[in-house]
Amino acid sequence: MGIRSLLVSLALVVLVASFCRADPAWNGHLTPGSTTNTRFTPYYVPPGAKSYDSSSPLLHYTGTWSESFSSAYVQKSMRSSSEEGAAMTFTFIGTGVEWFGNQDRRHGIATVFIDGQLIQDVDTYNPVSMKQQRLFWTFSLPQGKHTLKVVNAGKKQGESTGTLVDIDALVVTRGPSSDVSPAPQQNMVVSSQEFPSGSSGLDLSSNFPASAWTLVQNGSTGVHAMQLAIISETHALIVDKVEHNPLSVSGHPAWAALYNLKTHALKPLAMQSNSFCAGGTFLSNGTLVNVGGNPIVEDHTAAADFGDVDGLQAVRIFEPCDSDNVDDCRIYENHDRIRMASPRWYNTVLRISDGSAMIIGGSLKGGWMNNGTTNNPTIEYFPPKNIHGSNGLPIHLPFLIDTLNSNLFPIAFSLPDGSVFMAANRDAMIYNWQTNTERRLPRIPNGVRVTYPMTGTGLLLPLSPDNGYTPEVLLCGGSTVDDTKPGYQISSQDPASSQCSRIVLTNDGIAAGWQVEEMPQARTMPDAVLLPTGDILIVNGAGSGISGYGNVIDQVGASNADNPVFTPVLYSPSAPAGQRFSSAGMPQSTIPRLYHSVATLTPNADIMIAGSNPNLDRSEVKYGTEYRVEWLGPPYMTQSRPQILSGAPKVLGFGEAVQLKVRLPTGSSQSANVKVALMDLGYVTHAVHANSRLVYLQFSLSNDKQTLTITGPPNGDIYPPGPAFIYVVADDIPSIGVKILVGDGKSPAVDQDAQRNLLDKSTVDQYEKTKGHPKEDSSE
Ligand SMILES: *[C@@H]1O[C@H](CO)[C@@H](O)[C@H](O)[C@H]1NC(C)=O
Ligand SMILES: *[C@@H]1O[C@H](CO)[C@@H](O)[C@H](O)[C@H]1NC(C)=O
Ligand SMILES: *[C@@H]1O[C@H](CO)[C@@H](O)[C@H](O)[C@H]1NC(C)=O
Question: Which residues form the pocket of ligand 3, taking CB atoms under 6 Å from any ligand atom?
C-alpha cells in the first residue's frame, strides 16, 4: 500500500468514526458540545448566537442596580433593582433577543421596549425560586440594529413581596445575514408575535404589492414545529423533540405547545416522554394520539435534565380540545397503563375504517437509516386488537422487510374499500388489514425512493361520488440515492428527485401502472397540502441531499440537505397532463424549510408553514432552528367567499342528511359550481401527511341558494370515522371550514383481553430506570 492510499484509508477511518458518533436525537441531559453534565436551566446559547453577561459594558444601566455573585448565575454575576424606573438599555445587531434572570416570590413586573416601542409587561414573580429563566424573547425582528430596554415598572402582583427585577444575561440571535443569501423578497410582511402568554405583538409590517397569492410571516411556534395538527377551529398542536426551545413549562424548555391560529398566542404543554420522532392521528371519538418517539440515551445520564422519559413505546393522549380557551387542554401519558407493545421510532400512524389507529413500522431504537437490526417490520393497533391471532401484540408485515433500508415513516392512506395503501422506499402495496394480506403494486418508476431518509411526500387524491370514489395516489419528490451506501458516500449535494408518480388503485389502474410527471423543481422533504378546491399545494424541501442531520458529507451546518426550494407550486390533478404544475403569481419565501418542516391547511383555508431544524439541539448556524411561521394565502383568500351560517352538526352520521344555512357570494351562479369538501387536515410530520383526506359530499342546494342539504359520507371506508372540517366551495372559492365529527362519535372498540395481554407481554420503558430521576407530573 502506497503512502497515499494509506492516508486515504486513514482519512476514511476518521470520517467513519466521526459519522458514527452522530446522535439520533439529543436527549436533553448534556449541553451539546460540552463534556460535563451541567445543571439544567433554560439559559442556553445556541451555536451561532451570542451571550452578553449582566456585567458587559454594552449593557447600560440607569437608576439603582446592585450586583450580586453566585455560581448559579450566568458568568457568576447578576444585576438587580427594586426601584421604579430603573432601566437597562442594550443595543444589538440581529433578528432576536432573549433576556434571562431569576424568578421568585420577591420579584415584580418590568416593562419591555424594543426600538422605543412598548412591547409588554413581564411579570417575573414565581412562587417557586428559579434561576436562569427566560423572561422575554423575540426571534423575528427585521435584520438590523435594535435596542432592548427593560424598565422596572415598580409594580407587582398580589402575592409578590417585592418589585425586584433581575438582569442575568442577554442572548442575541444574530440572524441569517451572515450565512444565508436571501432570495429576492416578495410579498413579505415581517412581524413578531412570539411573546409569551399572548401579549400584544410588535408589528413591523411594510406594505406589500397586491398579488394573487400572498405570503405573510406572522407568529412563532415557541417549540420547534416538527409535528403539526390542526385540533380545532382556533388552534394547532405543535409537537417537537426534547431540546432548548424558548418556550418553557415548569421551569424547563417545553417540547409541545398549542398555537392560536388567530392571535398567534402560545400555550406550552407538559409532556413526559421524548416525542422525537413520533407520529399521530385522531381517533373516531376525536381524541388525538401521539405515538412513538425517542429513548433516553443511556450513556448521557445525569441528575439534571429535562425530566423526560423514554418515548419509544409511548401513546400520548390528547383529548378533544375544541373551545378557543385551551387552558385545560393537556397531554396525558401513563406508560404503565397505556403503551405500545414494541418500541417504534419513525412510525406512521393512520386512522383506519373502524376509527382505531394503525401503527406502522419504525425502528426499534433511534438511529438514522433503518436496517435489518433496527427494523420493526410490524404493525400494531391502538386500542390493541385481537386479530390474526395477535391478541394485542405486533403483526408481522413482510413489506417492511422487503423495503429496507430507506423505509421509515411509510406513506400510508386508508382506501375507500377499507384497505390501506402503503409506500416505502421504491415500493408500494395495498394491505387488507382484515385478512392480513398484502397486494404488491408495481415498483415506483425510475428508482425513486420516497421514504426516510430519501423523503418524498404522498397524498390520496380527492375522493368523489362522481366517479364512485375511485382512489388515486400521488407521490412526489424523494431521492434516487442508493440506500445501501454509508453516510460518507452520500452528499448533501446529491440531486433530489423532481418526479411525481400517480396510480389509480383499481385493477385497470394498477395494470396501467404509475404515470410519471416532473415538478418544476426537484425536492426532498416536500410537503403536499390538499386544498378544498381539489388542488394540491407543494411547498418546502431541498433541491439536494437527504433527510436528517449529521450523517452525510458536505453537511451545511449539520444538515444532510442543501439548496432549499423557496417557491411553492400548485398541482391541479384534474388538469390535462403537462399542464398540472403552476407557480404563476406564487410568492417566494426567504426561509429555508428543510428537515423537520411542516405545512397544513388551516380552518381559514390558507396554508400554515412552519419548522425546519436539521440539528441535534436548537442552533442558529445555517441551517438553524426555525420558529417563524408563514401563512400562504391562495388568491381566494382575498375574494368574496361563501359562508356557512348555521346548521353544521357536532356529529355527522354516515349517510345522514343535514341542512346548512349558507351564503354564497353574490354573482356565484348555478349549483354546478358548488362543491362540499369534507376534509381531514391530517397529522403532519417528516413530510408524512397521515390521514390527509378530501371527500366531496353529495348535496342539493335550495332554489334560493340559502339552504344546502348535505349527506354524510356513505361509510367509514370512504371517510374513517373521526374529526373533519367542512368547507363549502363555490366557483373554486372555499368558505371557512367548520369542525365536525364524522360517524357516531364513539370511541374505537377496546378489546380488554388484547389490552391485558399487551401489558403482560411487554415491558414498560426499558430505559426509564437508568435515569434515577422522579417522573414529572404531567400537569403544569
Ligand atoms: C399578525 O397577527 C396579528 C393577530 O392576528 C394581527 O393583529 C397582525 O396584524 C398580523 N400581522 C401581520 C403582518 O399580518
Ligand atoms: C443499523 O442501524 C443502527 C442505528 O443507526 C446502527 O447502530 C447499526 O450499526 C446498523 N447496523 C448495520 C448492520 O448497519
Ligand atoms: C377515545 O378513545 C380512546 C381510546 O380508547 C380513549 O383513550 C379516549 O379517552 C377516548 N376519548 C374520549 C373523549 O372518549
Answer: 283, 285, 287, 317, 319-320, 383, 747-748, 750
Q: Is 208 exposed, middle or buried (0-12, 13-18, 19+ CB in 10 A)?
A: middle
Of all ligands present, the nearest one to the C-alpha of 755 is 3
pLDDT at 773 over 70: no
- CA-based radius of gyration for the chain: 26
What cell does 387 get? 386479530
Hey, which bits of 657-751 come out as E strands? Answer: 657-663, 674-680, 683-685, 688-690, 693-696, 698-701, 707-711, 722-730, 733-734, 738-742
For residue 287, the CA-to-ligand 3 centroid distance in Å is: 6
Cβ(562)–Cβ(538) below 8 Å: no
Q: Find the ligand nearest to 486 CA.
A: 2
Q: Give CA–CA dist 338/644, Å, rounded.
A: 39
Cell of 99: 433576556
Looking at all shown ligands, the one closest to residue 198's CA atom is: 1
Ligand 1 probe mutation, 141, 190, 193, 266, most atoms within 8 A of CB: 193
Percent of the chain residues topping a pLDDT of 90: 79
pTM: 0.91
The finding on whether 234 has its CB within 6 A of some atom of ligand 1 is no
Residues 6+ apart with CB under 8 A from 670: none
d(CA 269, CA 683): 18
Contact 195, 120 (CB under 8 A): yes
SS in 3 state form for 212-264?
Answer: CCEEEEEEECCCCCCEEEECCCCEEEEECCCCCCCCEECCEECCEEEEECCCC
Candidates 285, 354, 758: which one to mutate for ligand 3, based on the most atoms within 8 Å of Cβ?
285
| Residues sharing a CB contact under 8 Å with residue 21, sequence separation 6 or more, in sequence order | none
The secondary element (H helix, E strand) that includes residue 110 is strand 109-114
**pLDDT of res. 572:** 98
Cα–Cα distance, 100 to 78 (Å, whole number): 10
pLDDT over 50 (residue 195): no
User: Please, are residues 172 and 80 in contact by the beta-carbon 8 Å criterion?
Assistant: no
Give the dihedral sign, CA 407/408/409/413: positive
Q: Whose CA is nearest to atom 14 of ligand 2?
A: 371
Peptide bond preceding 383: is omega within 30 degrees of 0, i.e. cis? yes
ω into 405 cis (within 30 of 0): yes
Please check whether residue 695 is in contact with residue 715, taking contact to mean a CB–CB distance below 8 angstroms. no
- Residue 8 DSSP SS3: helix
Q: Is 669 exposed, middle or buried (0-12, 13-18, 19+ CB in 10 A)?
A: exposed
Q: What domains appear along the chain, each with residue ranges and CATH number?
A: 50-173 (2.60.120.260), 643-742 (2.60.40.10)
The residues with which 742 forms a beta bridge, in sequence order, are: 652, 722
The residue written with cell numbers 434561576 in the block is: 131
Which contiguous run of DSSP H or E holds residue 10? helix 3-20
Task: Burial-class residue 770 by CB neighbours within 10 Å (0-12, 13-18, 19+).
Answer: middle
- Across-strand partners of 422? 412, 429
Instruction: Look up cell 398540472; give the residue.
Output: 580
Please work out whether the CB of residue 489 comes within 6 Å of at least one atom of ligand 1. no
**Is the Cβ–Cβ distance between 227 and 179 less than 8 Å?**
no
Report the alpha-carbon distance of residue 511 to residue 375 in Å, rounded. 31
How many of the other CB atoms lie within 10 Å of CB of 69? 11
SS (H, E, C) 577-624: CCCCEECCCCCCCCCCCCCCEEEEECCCCCEEEEECCCCCCCCCCCCC
Paired with 101 in beta bridges are 133
Do residues 131 and 77 make contact, with C-beta atoms less than 8 angstroms apart?
no
pLDDT tens, residue by residue, 392-444: 999 999 999 999 999 999 999 999 999 999 999 999 999 999 999 999 999 99
